[in-house]
Amino acid sequence: MTFYQQLLENNKAWVEEKLSxxxxxFENLAKGQQPAVLWIGxxxxxxxxxxxxxxxxxxxxxxxxxxxxxxxxxxxxxSVLDYAINVLKVKYIIVCGHYGCGGxxxxxxxxxxxLIDNWLRxxxxxxxxxxxxxxxCKDDTERLNKLVExxxxxxxxxxxxxxxWQDANANEEAPVIHGWVHNLKTGLIKELC
Length: 193
Ligand SMILES: [Zn+2]
What we know:
The protein has helices at residues 3-21, 25-29, 49-53, 75-87, 102-109, 116-129, 131-135, 140-160, 163-170, and strands spanning 37-42, 60-65, 92-98, 176-182, 189-191. It is α/β, with parallel strands linked by helices.
């Protein structure tokens, strides 16, 4: 069986497992969603939002891109934020980066890669704002992990600076924003801000 075929087999097994625990699981799920959390994370395959936080389908609204970046002109992330804040009325927004992030590393090394350079530009801007702090790091690993943290903090600030969040905040309906970093080596999450 190919890995591709295995995915469909896994799906059937998962459906059976869910139905054995709750015969109405999918019927109820199909009625609608009321997730309390919007997750903005990296596309990295090693940080699956639902798995690392142990939530079930329907509990988390998820947006992922390379290096968990919130860009004020990105209609994709703005639409997700709009829907999460104004329709789903989520209580929390979590920006979750991860140590050893390839996207952040690409921004740190600052060597031309290709199209993605334009996306990484946003992280290079974060790097530029914190040059002195990054220069104090004892080695490249510490520098990368520092920039991962600074990037999460910058994206939390970017969410706060959207008109979407500020309008919700004016109505005292804004979700609380948290910045997290996932550690690939331990599986554990660190609360940053
Ligand atoms: Zn990453």
